[in-house]
Amino acid sequence: MQVKDKVAVVTGAAGGIGAALAEALLEAGARVVVSDIDEQRLTATADRIGAVAVAGDASSEECIAAMIAAAEEHFGPVDIFFANAGVGDGAGLAATDDQWQLALDVNLLAHVRAARQLVPGWVQRGSGYFVSTASAAGLLTQIGSATYSVTKHGAVGFAEWLAVTYGDDGIGVSCLCPMGVDTDMLRSGMTSGGGEGGKVAAAAVTQAGEVLAPRDVADQVLAAVAEGTFLVTPHTHVREFLRRKVDDQDRWIHGMQRYQRQLKGDVR
Known about the structure:
Protein name: SDR family oxidoreductase
Family: Belongs to the short-chain dehydrogenases/reductases (SDR) family.
Pfam family, one: adh_short
CATH topology: Rossmann fold
CATH architecture: 3-Layer(aba) Sandwich
GO molecular function, one term: oxidoreductase activity
Number of domains: 1
Radius of gyration: 18 Å
Shape: globular
CATH superfamily: NAD(P)-binding Rossmann-like Domain
Strand content: 5-15%
Oligomer: single chain
Structural class: alpha/beta
Keywords: Oxidoreductase
Order of helices and strands: EHEHEHEHEHEHHHEHH
CATH class: Alpha Beta
């Protein structure tokens, strides 16, 4: 899908990848609604780039409906939805049910709820595009965070299911799976309240490869949308890691165990 003149919604867009996506979309000629739970930062970002802002929880059915309604009111029917909002922490087995529910809601069910509201209309129109921001953790794992790893696997699985189920109906799907990107989540999200697990989770990302600028990632996502490419891996070595995992999962797990031991030694 070419994004010029298309109507796009981007969640988690107060900063980081979401703000970069919105800015890139606007520069490419799209009309954009941005959303984030941080109303103050969202408003500042929307004013700076020239987007329509709808503050709220991206996992809420009501907020998703409000985003879609704002897009229709200002521009017309939504053509592309970027399910980009995410949460991360350093929680392992000690994660509470509330922590699990938050991760499930934002990292996975927000995608399901948005697709539920948009896909039937796209099927009728014969076109539409859904972009899921998952993570390399959804293809591999996230050392230090059970909640992040599991829910990002779910996001990848749901994006695959959407692509398989609705590809013949004219609906495109891309799934973004980066490693380290210079965002608030990487700088503080994983470590906030996560203790050693959070520090290990952050170190696992930053030491595994280059930390990319959000705009570099956004440009790759829009290129993937233009080409109809499903899997977007800005860090090229993620695909090699995935091949190794598939080829010999036991060997891959042993290697990850060694890497975890190294990381724990580094953060202590």
